[in-house]
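Hi team,

Filling in the usual template for the complex we talked about on Friday. All components are listed, including any nucleic acid strands or ligand strings, so the model treats them as one assembly.

SUBMITTER: L.P.
PURPOSE: interface mapping
COMPONENTS: two
RESIDUES: 810
SEQUENCES:
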Amino acid sequence: MTSADKNNPDTSTAQNSSADLGVTVPKGFSAAAVTAGIKPSGKSDMALIRNDGPDAIAAAMFTRNQVTAAPVRYTQAHNDGTFRAVVVNSGNANACNGAQGDKDAKATAERVAEALGCQPGDVAVCSTGLIGDVLPMDKVLAGVDELAGNLDQSIAAGNAAARAIMTTDLVSKEAVYHGDGWSIGAMGKGVGMMAPSLATMLVFITTDAHLPSSAMAHQALASATPTTFDCIDIDGATSTNDTVLLMASGASGVTPDAEEFNAAIHQVCLDIGMQLQADAEGVTKRVSITVGGAETDEAAQTAARVIGRDNLFKCAMFGSDPNWGRVLAAVGMAPVKMNPAGISVSFNGHPVCINSTGAPGARTVDLSGADIAVEVDLGVGEGRATVWTTDLSYSYVEINSEYST
Amino acid sequence: MTSADKNNPDTSTAQNSSADLGVTVPKGFSAAAVTAGIKPSGKSDMALIRNDGPDAIAAAMFTRNQVTAAPVRYTQAHNDGTFRAVVVNSGNANACNGAQGDKDAKATAERVAEALGCQPGDVAVCSTGLIGDVLPMDKVLAGVDELAGNLDQSIAAGNAAARAIMTTDLVSKEAVYHGDGWSIGAMGKGVGMMAPSLATMLVFITTDAHLPSSAMAHQALASATPTTFDCIDIDGATSTNDTVLLMASGASGVTPDAEEFNAAIHQVCLDIGMQLQADAEGVTKRVSITVGGAETDEAAQTAARVIGRDNLFKCAMFGSDPNWGRVLAAVGMAPVKMNPAGISVSFNGHPVCINSTGAPGARTVDLSGADIAVEVDLGVGEGRATVWTTDLSYSYVEINSEYST
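RESULT (copied from the run log):
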């Protein structure tokens, strides 16, 4: 089972107090967090996860943004099915820093490798925060040394690591799955610049399953992300630093059935994904948009994404305003086949538009709750997909107009 | 010359007091405005423009949204190079009203035709306002009768018509061009749902030029819109009702040179376009985004549009925050060729990013003024384009979260 009940996303914010969540739940993983001094706030800002083995299998997904951060380039270059550790800093994205950024990402990995006694190519590096400032490497390298000295297999160490990767996240995000004799743990961060295009934000998944090959890890991750992280679209903005990393220690000695493993990874990705949605910048409404009646599932997802990115629709959701005309206006611009006279829309199960015409009572549907389910039928086929987004609130504008200054 | 100085968009809001602007400046046009009672505010909400001839040449551009309003469908169906009049209502878009909407658009045109003694197919119909409410036809038809009785060739009548088509517009939008013995007048409305995809919002252009054929009118309009209205992208949302209509009366007896005519129409479209940008919902910054160094002009426009639609970038502009990393993160998702390590950005002429790396002083560039010019170079070619957008402010959220309720 997962930690969060998908029918009641409020439970997803309660995991901080839970002791049985996170990346150190599976056997064979140590974690640590420190305050290296990168964040002006003085909060913890570096984390390290070590795979204590016996296996060191890994799979990773990265941003599709053409402008990639230096740590993404470093980790991509060494993404050969094996990682023994991942080091993460928050407060600075190490993106758009030219050759200096690449040099700093490499130096960070080298220091971790030295401290842990492995190769630099066995260390994944991730950064998140402001784009365009050079990393304070004195603080980062001192932080690495301290992290290496603090590694611990306790659940609390994993919880601390989850807090150390937060930026404007209000809560840390962790999940767990228990199989028969094996388990999966996960942590993630991300609140803005959130429109994955393969993978999103920083998400770290650990398992003590013994996987026969990295292909099984890759297969599970690659099949989970398209219908979980890739279906979250908060603001249409895809980060330069997005990374999802799965590491398998094999410490349980159990090799799960591939189908169960894939389903479990999917469940954990969805769990973390729903926590990301629930903590998105300025969120007051969690909005799911399901499009059916499309020609294909891909067309349905495209249409759902177009609605989810429409600022006018998102403002209406903020105002609890059942202004369904904005759904029609938005979806009409989706580059997919639809029957313009045969579109139907419902809000929270109440039909508000039938055959592209207002339904009785449409203007009085109550959208005052925190969760809004929008269903749209395009009237041309069987394709279906769901995208998760949020409303567009004053707080979103406030947070994002004051980020770097 | 046009009414607004493009180097100082503030002048564009001063046109209300100017007596020499609008659709009745050219000879051969009458206009009228009435309060039919469609708007709850009690402000004027219907306008009529009649081409008094001798010619009745017309050209029109419409929204590319697949979901079109009934008046758009009606006008498209009769768009044969001739319109004698256009009737407009604000306060109700007559969109997504099914067969009733089509019936109401047709009945409106028929009533106008009856009152003016022309054919219903010679009447263009436009509506703007809330989507999904059926038109109050008793008020609309009474309004048509009153409009027909009030038609007047005075400048004041054109000014009144420009005010009657406003929705959340704070100022009316009018323009004029004076040729040698002939002239062009124009009015437009539009503040949100503004991301034209051929034409945008409601814009009405009149001229007393004697055009040898409707092909000349169409040619001028079709060549002007791609670099004027099509380059405004306030919120990525394309209306169901967008229409640009050009009518030529021939009353001056002068046939302008086609090149001059095209340039004049372009200038008037740009003038109205800049007024639309300056009055966009919640605007506090007018932002121009020029992308150069792209493979083609089209690629440059695509990249500029991706930046202009990025909410994180727009929030930074609202905060006068020179957070250039958001420009890089946004443009990196544009589906065009770029050199990810060779992108440069300037704000108001100050380089803030050179070869994808921060420039000295980048964080202290002053963006406190109302106009921000962003220049981006992708480093791969000679393609170049400009898109005009605005910031994303608290007011935008306020206006759009309280629109229908």
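MY TAKE: Chain B touches chain A through 72 residues (CB under 8 Å). Chain B has two domains: 9-278, 286-401.

Thanks, L.
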